[in-house]
Amino acid sequence: QKEVEQDPGPLSVPEGAIVSLNCTYSNSAFQYFMWYRQYSRKGPELLMYTYSSGNKEDGRFTAQVDKSSKYISLFIRDSQPSDSATYLCAMSPYSGGGADGLTFGKGTHLIIQP
Amino acid sequence: DTAVSQTPKYLVTQMGNDKSIKCEQNLGHDTMYWYKQDSKKFLKIMFSYNNKELIINETVPNRFSPKSPDKAHLNLHINSLELGDSAVYFCASSQVFYGANDEQFFGPGTRLTVL
Fold first, then answer.
1. Measured between alpha carbons, how far is B47 from B56 in angstroms, rounded to an integer?
2. B45-80, pLDDT tens digit by residue?
3. Within 10 A of A82 (CB to CB), how many other CB atoms are there?
4. Strands across the sheet with A54-58, in order?
5. Are B43 and A104 a contacting pair at CB < 8 A?
6. 3-class state of residue A82 by DSSP
7. Inter-chain contacts counted by CB atoms under 8 A, chains A and B
């Protein structure tokens, strides 16, 4: 079993829909959870950063962490074609990644249809 | 200004060659990383480096070696390149190894193709 599981998609939804992206993990030591967005042939850029369980909202994006279920989610409201990208979940026991770096999911390829 | 930069952006080379990828960060961070993203887009840590302390992921062949001339740079040297080394390599940096509310910033990546 991989440490972080993420459905690679592709996930295709119409513009304006609510998108739900998810990851499950097995390492109970993970405390910090991130979502990165990666456009084609670009580096990952940080979208959301959360610590431990709970919700965090930033504009159209909401990140949820349920440590009891080892399950994290990213919701995108009013999705736009510019949101089309690969979304990578990442996690670590340590804030900046620590010596072991971040552990990533495989990424979900999201397509927002105009 | 680019926070984390890498050169070259593309690198095409023959099997058996030795090559280097440069990484620079202008964020004043103490910690830098190298990740490999394979053809299935899976990002995996290779090295982390902080104040002369180097942590090597056990799966990385010893043909790969990072070198840090100063705090702002962590270059990746690869000897005797193999077909399986073809991937996108990302450099990243963070403030410290174990900080509070820290995050990693990634470079744009170097796409290595070994023929």
1. 5
2. 999 998 778 887 878 999 999 999 988 999 999 999
3. 8
4. A4-5, A19-25, A71-76, A61-66, A54-58
5. yes
6. helix
7. 84
